[in-house]
Here is the input.
Amino acid sequence: MITLSAADLAIAAALVLLLALLSIRLRTGIGGQLLIAATRTALQLSLIGLVLKALFASSQPGWVALLSLVMLLIAGREVMMRQERPFRGWWGYAVGTVSMFLSSFAVTLFALIVILGEQPWYAPQYAIPLLGMLLGNTMNGIAIATDRLTQAAWEQRNTIEARLMLGERWDAAISEYRSKAIRGGMIPIINAMAAAGVVSLPGMMTGQILAGALPVEAVKYQILIMFLITTGTGLGTLAAVSIGARRLFDSRQRLCLDRLRES
Amino acid sequence: MSKTPPLLQIKDLARPMLGPVSLVLAPGECLCITGPSGSGKSQLLRAIADIDPHGGELWLDGVSAQDIQPEQWRRQAGLLPPESSWWLPRARDHFTDGMPVEPVRLGLDDAALDQPVSRLSSGERQRLALLRLLAIGPRVLLLDEPTANLDAGNTSRVEALIGEYRLAHGAAVIWVSHDRTQVERVADRHLMLNDGGLEEQARVMRQ
Here is the structure.
């Protein structure tokens, strides 16, 4: 494995800096954002590197659980921030967070206990990266799907209510938009699976190969991860859209758009 | 006073800026509601159809709305909003249980049913929306300006069809209209909604 020095990273950072300068010169309006995002990447990853180093050394289940919880809560906030019309109150936070908890945690636990079988099952060098990959991808699917659902409910209010007026149940009245939202959340991961190895080499696999792993082993891990991510994203999206769709109606099956707010 | 048991009873129905409104409708009765724009006529119909949350109580044939599943209630108290909405490509796709009457009764060409809904005129959509509502067989028709986009000939056809439906099914009608002459033609009772409250304007004894 080729160990990277600080100078190597500085050269890569210089490339981003050049891109940012070019963006500023061309007045694209994203030069500043690019620099802030790159700085955040460096700081956040360095920080998590230190945390993981300490965590791997201690291997205490309590610390693994705490870090997992922090990751979940941050991902839940991220889902809410990406909504144009999130739910009011704690529901805005809960729809995404609960769905990610149900999907990412369940799939990670399944992979750790049934597939990887490492002892102890919560070994942080497996549990945390796996959960991170799952949360990151599931978060994207859930954010897209819930945003599509609430936007559709807002824009298609008259149609949904017309169906209710004709005696349809709430779930029939919103079924078309629910299906579209689920498709929207799932398409990025389906596309990623379809393009894997043909159009693109997935980042995790590339990283493992660069770090010295055998390509065949890296590929096996990549397939495992993609299947887990797909399952996690699918379950999370289904859960979020199901919870969100129900929340859009009250106990008398009336469409309650006052439960949404503008972000 | 009519001795017929009421079909629809409304007691203290209230929304913000509306009511409390209390009403009793006999089978076959047509109640017209008029009032200035923004007085709450559409709100009243939406509340009766249980599309909007509201205070107060409603009964159909003596059964409380709370004891009837909402989708069943809305099939019994069918609301025709001023603007119709369609979710399938052709109007015909929305009539899964068949047409209640031949579309020609409302001056509609059969071909209109197979055109993309977006190509139909607002008047055609309004008449088709009425047929779509009648197809589910409501006991109470809640009509929000059902002839607003229609010419005189089609207005007469709609009024005649609703009259026949009332007779054939013993259905009661709450008809919101801005047209005073129409109110005189169709109403058994006429109420004015003003500042959220109802005032009786006229009661017509028909043969």
